[in-house]
Amino acid sequence: MVEHITGMLALIGVLSLLCQWAGWKLRLPAILPLLLCGLLLGPGLNILNPDEIFGDLLFPIISLGVAVILFEGALTLNFKEIKEHGRMVTHLVTIGALITWACIAPAAHFLMGFDWPVALLFGALVVVTGPTVIVPMLRTVQPKSKLSSILRWEGIVIDPIGALLAVLVYEYIAVAADPTTHLLYALGLTLVIGFGLGAAAGYFIGFAIRKNVFPHYLRNTAVLTIMLGIFVGSNMIQEESGLLTVTVMGIWLANMRGVDIADILEFKETLTVLLISALFILLAARLDSNAMLGLGAGAFAVLFVVMFIARPLSIWISGLGTNLTSKDKWFLSWVAPRGIVAAAISSLFAIKLEELGIHGASSIVPLVFFIIIGTVVIQSLTAGPWAKYLGVKEGSNQGLLIFGASKFSRDLAKELIAKDFKVVLADSNWDSIRQARMENIPVYFGNPASEHATNYLDTSGIGRVLVMSPYRSINPLVSFHYQDIFGSEKVFGLNNSEANVGSGRHQLSESYLKRLCLFGENISYAKIASLMAKGAILKVTNITENFTYDKFRERYGETAMPLVYITKDAKLRIITAETGKIPVGVELISLLPAEAQEQAVIQRALDEEAARLAKIKAEEEAKAAAEARAIREAQEAEQRAIEKARRKEEELAKFAEAEQAALLAQEQADLIELAQGEKTAEIEQATNLSSQQLHVNSAEEQDAEANGMADTPAVTKS
C-alpha cells in the first residue's frame, strides 16, 4: 500500500511536469492537458482514486494547497497598480465582478435548481478568470497591447477578489447551516478574525522583512511557514475562517510600504505551479463521469449565460466613460476563460458543504469544471479569428524587451519610444528600475525568465529580446527562455567574450554564443558601460542619398557604434555582426563615443570650411560665367543688330526697286492710257467725220431725190 501511494505521488509529479510542458509547447493553457490527464487517470482508466489513496489526508492536502494558492494570488493585489492600469480594470474587478455574480447566480438557481446559497457560491466561484489561462491565450491571439493589458490585469486582480467573495459567501453558508450558533454572531466573528488576524499577520511579516529579522536564506521558508500557521490557527479560533485570513494577509503584505516581496513571490509561484498542477490532476480524477453527464441541458444554458450574457453585460457597463471602441468591447466580451483557482476552491468548498449536508453541493464541482472546459476550449479556438475579424490584432511585433535597465538601455528605450515602438525594460536592480520609472519607461522588476514574468510581464507587441545586463549567470537563462518563445533568431545578446573563458564545464554552448552578436563583434556590456561613463551619447541620423552610410562613417569614424535603424515602412531592424551595409532612406540610431563626437566636430568644421571654399569657388565661377555670358550676350546682340540693319537695307533696297518698278509701270500705264486716249480721240474724230460725211451724203441724196421727183412724171400703179 505504501509503495502504491509513493508511486501515485511520483506519477502525479511527473504528469504535472509533462502537462505544464505540453501547455507551454502548444501555447495552450496548462489547465487543458492537466484536466485531460486527470480525467484519463480517474474516471477514464480508474488508475488514480484520490479518496482511496489519501483517505482522510485528502481534505487537509487540498485545504493547505488552496491556502497557498490564495495567499500567492493576494500578494499580487497591489491597489496602486490597479489604479495605474486604468479605469477599465478597476471597473471590471469591482462593478464587472458584481454584475457577473448577479447574472450567474440566478441562472444556476433557475436553470440548475440550486438553492440560493449554493447558487450564490457557484456564481462567486466562476467570477474569476486567472492569469494561468489568460496569458497563454493572449500569446496565441496577440491582440492590441491595450486590450492585452486589460485582460491580463483583470485576471491577476480578480483572482484574490473573486476568491475573497467566494470565501465570504461560503462563510455565510457554513454559519447559516450550523444550528448551534447565532448567524450574525458567527458571521461577525469570522469576518473580525479573518480581517483582523489577516491584517495583523500581514503587518508582522512585512515588518520582519523590512527590518531583516530573518536571514535571506530563511525568508521564503519563514513566510510560508508563518502563513500556514496563521491559516491553521485562524481555523482553530473560528472554523473555516483561515482562507479569509490568508487572503487578507496577502493583500495587506502586497500593499505595505517599504516591503520587497519579489523573492517571496518568485518562491511562491514555483510552489504554486507544483500545487496547482498536482491539485488539478487530483481534482479532475475525483470527478464522477456520471455526475458530469447528469448535468443535462441546464449546464449548457448556464454556460450560455456565462459567455453571452454575463460577460458582455459586465464589459459594456464597465466600459462606460472609457476610451474603448465598440470593437474593443466586443473582443473583451468574448475572452474570459475560467481557471484553476475556481476549480481548486470549488472542490474544497464542495467537500466542506457535503459534510454540512447542504443540498446541491455535489453538483458544484462538475458544473464548475464544465464551465472551465467550455470557456477555455471554445474561447481558445475562436478568440484568434474573432480578433482578426474585429481588426484588434496587434500586427507585426516590432517591440523590444530589454533585459538590463542601465543608462544605455534607458537612453535607447527613450529614443525608440519616441519613434512609437513599444519597449519594456526588465531588471532585478531596483535602482535601475526606479530610474527608468522616473523617465516614464515601462518596466518589469525581477527576472524576466521567471514564472512571475510569464504571468505578469506584458509581452504583447514585443517580438524581440535584447539581453544587455551585467548578470552573466542569468543572461543565458533569459536568452534560452525567450528563444523558446520568440525563436532563436529574435533573441540577441552582447558578446561578453570573457564569459566563455575558463574550464570546459563553465563554457557556454556554441548555439548560445552564436547569438552574442548584438551591435557587432566583441561589443560587451563592459565596453558600452565604459563608453557611457566617458560621455558617449545616442544619435539619430537620417541616412539619405546625400548623406550615405559611407559619409556617416567619414564624419564619425570607426568608433561610432550603429545600434538599430528604422525603415521607411516603420520596421525596426537590430544591427548585429551579421548586418550588411546600412541602406539609404532609414533613420539610424547609433552610440557616439567621445572620440566620435570630437571627430564629428572636427569633420564638421572641415566640411563647413570645404563647403565655404566650394561656395566661394562656385560664386567666382558663377561670376565668371555671368561675365562670359554677358559678353556673349552683347556680342550676340551686336550681331543681331548688324543682321537686323543688313536685313533693313535689303528690305529698303527691295522696297526702292519695287517702288521704281511701280513708277515705271505707272508711267508705262500712263503712256498706254495716253496712247489709248489719243487713238480713241482719233477714232471718235474719224467717226464724227464719217458721220458728218454720211449726213452730208444723206442730205445730198435727199436733195437729189427731191430734185428727181420734180423732174420725173408721176407713175400710176397698176
UniProtKB/TrEMBL annotation:
Chain ranges passing through the membrane: 6-24, 31-48, 54-77, 89-112, 118-138, 150-170, 182-205, 217-237, 271-287, 293-310, 331-351, 357-378
Record's keyword terms, sorted: Antiport, Cell membrane, Coiled coil, Ion transport, Membrane, Transmembrane, Transmembrane helix, Transport
GO biological process: potassium ion transport; proton transmembrane transport
Domain (RCK N-terminal): residue spans on this chain: 401-479
All copies of domain Cation/H+ exchanger transmembrane, residue ranges: 15-388
Gene Ontology CC entries for this record: plasma membrane
Parts forming coiled coils: 616-668
Residue numbers spanned by region Disordered: 689-718
Subcellular location: Cell membrane
Membrane topology term: Multi-pass membrane protein
Major subcellular site: membrane
GO MF, one example: antiporter activity
UniProt xrefs under InterPro entries: Cation/H_exchanger_TM (IPR006153), Na+/solute_symporter_sf (IPR038770), NAD(P)-bd_dom_sf (IPR036291), RCK_N (IPR003148)
PANTHER family in the record: NA(+)/H(+) ANTIPORTER 1 (PTHR32507), NA(+)_H(+) ANTIPORTER 2-RELATED (PTHR32507:SF0)
Name this protein carries in UniProt: Sodium:proton antiporter
